[in-house]
Amino acid sequence: MAAKRRLLTAKWHHLAMLNYEIAPDVLVPYLPRGTELDFFHGKTYVSIVGFQFLRTRILGVPIPWHCNFDEVNLRFYVRRRSYGTTRRGVCFIKELVPRLAVAKIANWLYNENYQAVAMRHQINRTDSTGPHVSYQWKQEQRWQGLTLTAQATLQLPAPGSFEEFIAEHYWGYTPQRDGGTVEYEVQHPPWKIWPATNADLNCDVASLYGEPFIKPLRNLASAFLAEGSPISVSMPSKIC
Fold it and tell me: Could you give the count of Cα atoms lying within 13 Å of 130 in the half-sphere of its Cβ?
């Protein structure tokens, strides 16, 4: 199989991952053709992920004023069988960024549901405790967002753990306007994580994600903070 051409390189940093159990039938309308839902111990999950996009380059070129920014997304987990292996990936329901050009390019290239909004973040660290992070966005004329306070211990997730299931997905899948699906590869080393001591989501879920997500996003299943790393994202390719 030929190597995929890189479209984007960056560093993803301080990934706050808030994870929620959700009924599979809520996700089926968003499922790209050619993929199936990925389960962990018989359950399906969505995650709200806030992180920093740093040193961003498109086809190796930095775009002025668009290299460093925040993103917050709502994603769920899928898999696809290809070349005798199972590719574990993510699908995005909605992605928030503070740059209109980033949203337009991503929507055009991948047909993903990006929205440009005002955003801000805060990251506090001390020598004796883990990081405290906050990612906020402005919706309906007020600041909303997520917060996470982490333990001091930074380590790789245990093999087969829930944290490994959430963090270790290396493919993205997006439904297209013609009913098909595109696939892209995300390359990065395994991420070390800080377990969370506290995490909270404060937003109008109905207006941001829709009424089917109100109840699932009330009950946090787990949360952790991933350290992040340099990443690369391939050009999208159509699979069906």
Answer: 22
User: Closest Cα partner for 17 from 162, 230, 188?
Assistant: 162
Residue 155 contacts residue 169 (beta carbons within 8 Å): no
Spatial contact of 118 and 135, defined as CB atoms under 8 Å apart: no
6-235 fold: Acetoacetate decarboxylase-like (2.40.400)
> Using CA of residue 98, residue 104, residue 110, residue 111, what is the dihedral sign?
positive
Distance CA 63, CA 109 (A): 16
Is pTM beyond 0.85 here? yes
- In this prediction, residue 239 carries a pLDDT of 93
What is residue 148's predicted lDDT score, i.e. its pLDDT?
A: 98
Structure-block tokens of residue 50? 């806030």
State the pLDDT confidence band at 1, using cuts at 50, 70 and 90. Answer: very low
